[in-house]
Design brief:
The chain is mainly alpha-helical and 378 residues long. The protein has helices spanning 44-50, 53-62, 68-80, 86-93, 101-113, 124-128, 130-148, 163-172, 178-190, 198-208, 213-224, 232-241, 246-258, 276-291, 295-312, 325-332, 340-358; strands at residues 28-31, 36-39, 42-43. It binds coenzyme A. The site of coenzyme A has 16 residues, from loops.
Length: 378
């Protein structure tokens, strides 16, 4: 029996918080009916066509696209933090190589955070000094965690490379062709912000308590690692990689639909229509797969997608961004278990922007729960 005078009213109660709104934001607008996604008023398709990840991260955090001199300052601030503390790399040596790369990377960030110049300073000014350091440190740490999977040492950054190219270089040990860097950068841009999804909300809860921005990002990473969230791109790729041809994929998908299978890389809490991030990446994925002689993988993807959407589309279930990023990352040479990492690297930009937007006057986030246990025994 539900008891207590503090039980929330039915209007404010929703399991999983579905449909509840926690505040206003000026950072991004998602239209889950028509498939629109804008950052600060710019559509992701336009940003992919005209901007770099550095410019887009500035836009998301600061609210405006940078002028040429603001962009140069932001780039040099990002370059300044490309060498995380040695202790974070030493910690990696003690982490089992079989651990998931996201867990390895999170462990390194925890160690690095203890070596920040002003860890206890949570004034607004100090929090604003953190995004460049977090973006650049995590890029280097993520690259090292991926290399650790097969026992390779970390690679020093190349100063004049942009964010996307330098991450790929520090991960792969070579600079990929321009079109692959551009495709990877497009994937970072479309994944850089997505409203108050579960991981962004986890970060917001942490910042609302008065904690530092690094702790908020670590909370976001934990939330993102789940299979329902950022872990889905790895699972979606593994599903597609089992098939050699479109026919095989179509036959399997029809049988899987019959038995009510839940397809990783499909469905979304907000989009009940095609995910605009998929559209922004499809041409890149097709071109890169074809340039690597992997046409069959593109055909598998389109066949699987057509089968699943023909049955589940009327229910509002379409391919989401996690269905396609692995198709880009695999031919570039990223290991499959590392696919969630670029997603995490990109989307922490949005988490930090939401935290900084909330900080000046946001109250501590602390929802209630309706008690449905035993009555007090007398
Ligand atoms: N494959 C098959 N059916 C799916 C589905 C999928 N990927 N996603 C949702 N559904 C179905 C459910 O079975 C359910 O059907 P029912 O009403 O007949 O029982 C219905 O759609 C609603 O599912 P629910 O889990 O309540 O919706 P949600 O809005 O909470 O789901 C996700 C959002 C993302 C958790 C869900 O779509 C999912 O698990 N997708 C796969 C994981 C994934 O790709 N995550 C990354 C998202 S970017």
């Amino acid at each position: 029996m539900i008891g207590g005078s503090r039980a929330p009213s039915p209007q404010s109660y929703a399991r999983g918080l579905e449909g509840l709104v926690t505040g206003d934001t000026m950072i991004s607008d998602i239209d889950g009916t028509t498939g629109g996604l804008t950052y600060r008023g710019y559509s992701i398709a336009d940003l992919v066509a005209t901007s770099t990840f550095e410019a887009v991260s500035y836009l998301i955090l600061q609210g405006e696209l940078p002028t040429a001199s603001q962009l140069e300052d932001w780039r040099s601030e990002l370059r300044r933090w490309r060498r995380p503390p040695r202790a974070a790399f030493d910690a990696l040596a003690r982490v089992p190589r079989r651990a998931h790369p996201l867990a390895q990377y999170r462990t390194m960030l925890t160690v690095a955070a203890c070596h920040t110049p002003e860890p206890e300073n949570t004034t607004l000014d100090a929090q604003w000094r953190r995004p460049a350091r977090i973006l650049s440190w995590t890029s280097a740490l993520a690259a090292a965690a991926i290399r650790h999977l097969d026992g390779r040492d970390a690679v020093e950054p190349i100063e004049d490379l942009g964010f996307a190219a330098n991450f790929l270089y520090q991960t792969l040990g070579v600079i990929p062709p321009d079109e692959e860097v551009r495709a990877f950068e497009a994937s970072l841009i479309v994944q850089a912000e997505h409203g108050l999804h579960a991981a962004a909300f986890a970060a917001l809860v942490v910042i609302s308590t008065g904690a530092d921005l690094g702790s908020a990002v670590l909370a976001g990473m934990g939330a993102l690692s789940g299979a329902r969230h950022g872990g889905a791109n790895q699972l979606a790729f593994e599903m597609m990689a089992r098939f050699e041809s479109a026919d095989q994929a179509g036959t399997w998908a029809r049988a899987a639909l019959e038995r009510g299978h839940r397809f990783p890389g499909f469905g979304h809490r907000v989009y009940r229509c095609p995910d605009p991030r998929v559209k922004a990446l499809e041409a890149h994925a097709e071109a890169i797969l074809k340039s690597h002689g992997l046409e069959h993988r593109w055909e598998v993807y389109t066949a699987l997608r057509a089968e699943v959407e023909s049955v589940l589309g009327p229910k509002g279930i379409f391919a989401n961004v996690d269905s396609i990023t692995g198709l880009l990352y695999h031919p570039m040479g990223l290991p499959v278990s590392a696919f969630p990492i670029p997603f995490c690297l990109a989307i922490q930009t949005g988490w930090m922007a939401h935290c900084l937007e909330y900080l000046p006057d946001g109250p501590m986030i602390e929802p209630g729960a309706v008690y449905v246990g035993h009555e007090e025994s007398s």
